[in-house]
Please model this.
Amino acid sequence: MLSDLHKLVSSAESESDWAKLRGIGEDADIFVDLGKLWQSENLEKAIAAYQTAVTISSDHVSEGDSKIVDYRAIRTSSNLGSLFLLQGNVDTAERTFQEGLEKLAADSGNDAEVLKTELAFNLARAYDEGNEVVKASQWYRDVLRQHPEHMECKLICSSLMRHIS
Model:
């Protein structure tokens, strides 16, 4: 059933197609949940569901003349990047994490900082997977400068340093 829904949304072109979906196809959360369900069974389907969620979500929410960064959309995109990494698509994962960091560059506050840390750590992992050890260690160290208590980062960084020296 969920596969059929995904096909309907992916192929919807006209207003009547969207009307048949009665708003379901415009709810990114449904596709995030669908991606989570497929994650352990079929990585390609999970990626497709997350891509649909990212497409539905807007990167910015307009508020008057200014734009506000949509943290949920960036977090969904970050999850998609992690799936690309699991798939072995390192370049796409790197690009996804970098885009998220760029969108958050001007934002501050606790939510923004948490998301920046997550993206930076994931970017370091992507560089690590792509055998770009110098870039990976730079990003890991940057995460540790910001958050010295980041245990997973400490472990990975110390392991990397042993391999470099």
